[in-house]
Amino acid sequence: MESSTFKRAYVWQLPVRLFHWINAFSITILIITGFIIANPPALMSNKEASEQFWFGYVRQIHFISAYLMVAVMVLRLYYAFFGNRYANWRVMLPLSKSGFSKMWHVIKYDLLLQNEKEYNFKNISTGHNAVAAFSYFIMFILAVVMVFTGFGLYAPTSTWFLPRMFEWVPAFLGGDFVTRTVHHYSMWAFILFVVVHVYLVFFHDWLEGRGETSAMFSGYKFVRTESIKDEEAANAEKKTA
């Protein structure tokens, strides 16, 4: 494919890129501090436990990161309705036969690494690929679960209204142990998502050479002109339908 058939297109708006990196930072801190909270290390020193507050700082960092993640979730939800078409909530769900077909293509050839006889450029998405888009939707649901269970566990020792809004969650789930277990396994789901996400980003960057990695810094991708025309035609049909 000649380079002349590609066009530099602005895909990811600045707020969406900022949300992505702030969310990545907050989730990383939440995972690290979450492991420490779940299994605190025994720190030997000549100080009494009552004279140390290191674990309190770990919990404080954990909660601040949680507030940051919630703020980003709210702002990203706003852009799911008022951002450009690549950030819109509709791209997160495979609502058409074409969407399911593209999702199966990614699973079959990108994740399961089956051989493809002829690479079909029509299966390349300008924004998120079908699996990535749907996985973001699942991750949003998991993030909601994390917020409910995390603030539910925090509520008894919190004096702020936001965590105390979720103090009913442990009783609803059957106690603190179940709530903590759900919170813990949701964290592992996030870790799995991060591993697959990073793999697919570098895989597509190598396979397609369209600036997949740098796009989340610059906002721009190299997109086939035919793909842009197809998208514009599809959007025009939706508006007239």
UniProtKB/TrEMBL annotation:
GO cellular component, one term: plasma membrane
Entry membrane topology: Multi-pass membrane protein
Compartments where found: Cell membrane
Entry superkingdom: Bacteria
Molecular-function GO term, any one: iron ion binding
A biological-process GO annotation: respiratory electron transport chain
Pfam families to which the protein is assigned, alphabetical: Ni_hydr_CYTB (PF01292)
Keyword list, A-Z: Cell membrane, Electron transport, Heme, Iron, Membrane, Metal-binding, Transmembrane, Transmembrane helix, Transport
InterPro entries to which the protein is assigned, alphabetical: Cyt_b561_bac/Ni-Hgenase (IPR011577), Di-haem_cyt_TM (IPR016174), Hydrogenase_cytochrome (IPR051542), Ni-dep_Hydgase_cyt-B (IPR000516)
UniProt similarity note: Belongs to the HupC/HyaC/HydC family.
Name used for this protein in its record: Ni/Fe-hydrogenase 1 B-type cytochrome subunit
